[in-house]
Amino acid sequence: MRVSIDSDLCIGSGQCALTAPAVFDSDDDGFGLVRPGSEDGRGDPMVKEAVRACPVQAITFAEE
């Protein structure tokens, strides 16, 4: 599994970082990013919830 954020779609709502802080964070400009080393989702059950919480569906969580 691989989690990623489309930086062209992200509006910086912060829902991903609030929902799954072990996997997501915000960059210096306030836009979402996947924490280094967390690209596989680390088995965090909240990753799928973060995908649903994103208001612009900028997060993908898919099998490679």
Automatic annotation (TrEMBL):
Record InterPro entries: 3Fe4S_ferredoxin, 4Fe4S_Fe-S-bd, Fe-S_cluster_ET
Keywords of this entry: 3Fe-4S, Electron transport, Iron, Iron-sulfur, Metal-binding, Transport
PROSITE patterns, sorted: 4FE4S_FER_2
One Gene Ontology term of the molecular function aspect: electron transfer activity
Superkingdom in the source lineage: Bacteria
Necessary cofactors: [3Fe-4S] cluster
Transmembrane segments: none
Boundaries of every 4Fe-4S ferredoxin-type domain copy: 1-29
Pfam families (alphabetical): Fer4_15
Function statement: Ferredoxins are iron-sulfur proteins that transfer electrons in a wide variety of metabolic reactions.
Name listed for the protein in its UniProt record: Ferredoxin
